[in-house]
Design a protein that fits this description.
Blueprint (H helix, E strand, L loop, with lengths): L4 E8 L6 E7 L5 E6 L6 E8 L3 E7 L6 E7 H6 L2 E5 L6 E6 L1 H18 L10 H17 L12 E5 L3 E6 L5 E5 L3 H6 L7 E4 L2 E4 L1
The chain binds zinc ion (3 copies).
One zinc ion binds next to loops.
């Protein structure tokens, strides 16, 4: 049997949040190429294929901005069915690597789970990572537009991602606001009207 691909990968687009499975082709020489989003063609990752050695994937985290490089030797890739790729800094799920079929089954499973909870609403399906990414983008935009101010007067924040929420922490006083982002409904609430409050261990600020 001829091997035409090294493996397949799927990454959440850091701009539009969509995810597509793509093959990493098997070249005869050393190759480096850019993987782009199938929807908005935003750059997702850079992949280096080294014949007989394996691949290296450079991918930035849309949440913390860290540039991650993950490498997979060929022997590992041959046996790999499905693996998640995380940001080394904040453990945000960046995407998946392995066999096309295994990745497709994982993504279908998530869609089916959503369909079971929201029958007839499959057009609105967003994966958990897509919701978190979109929430981070919204919170970033609000902070950049000066719509969020800490009670201490600061408008400088650090965003962090928890399991199903975004934390925005003031870099000056350490107060933080929590934006729930566990569902599409919660995501829709994140905007200029969002009734956020800043918390400190010993007191609660209210806007
Ligand atoms: Zn995109
Ligand atoms: Zn990260
Ligand atoms: Zn502050």
């Amino acid at each position: 049997m001829l091997i035409h691909t090294v493996c397949s990968v799927a990454f959440y687009c850091q701009r539009c949040g969509q995810i597509h499975i793509q093959d990493v082709p098997c070249f005869s020489g050393h190759q480096k190429f850019v993987l782009r989003c199938g929807n908005c063609s935003y750059e997702q990752a850079r992949i280096s294929v080294r014949p007989r050695k394996g691949i290296a994937i450079e991918i930035s985290c849309g949440v913390c901005g860290t540039k991650n490089t993950v490498t997979y030797p060929l022997q590992i890739l041959r046996r790999m069915q499905f693996e998640k790729i995380y940001c080394g800094q904040d453990q945000f799920e960046l995407g998946y690597i392995g066999h096309w079929q295994a990745i497709a089954e994982f993504l279908d499973f998530n869609a089916a789970e959503y369909e079971a909870l929201h029958p007839g609403d499959e057009d609105n399906f967003m994966g958990r990572q897509q919701i978190l990414l979109e929430a981070v983008n919204r919170v970033h935009d609000m902070a950049e537009d000066g719509e969020i101010a800490c009670p201490c007067g600061s408008r400088e924040f650090m965003a962090d991602v928890a399991e199903d929420s975004i934390l925005l922490e003031c870099v000056h006083c350490g107060s933080y606001a929590v934006f729930p982002a566990g569902s599409a409904e919660e995501l829709r609430c994140i905007g200029p009207e969002f009734p956020f409050e800043f918390l400190l261990p010993d007191r609660v600020w209210k806007r």
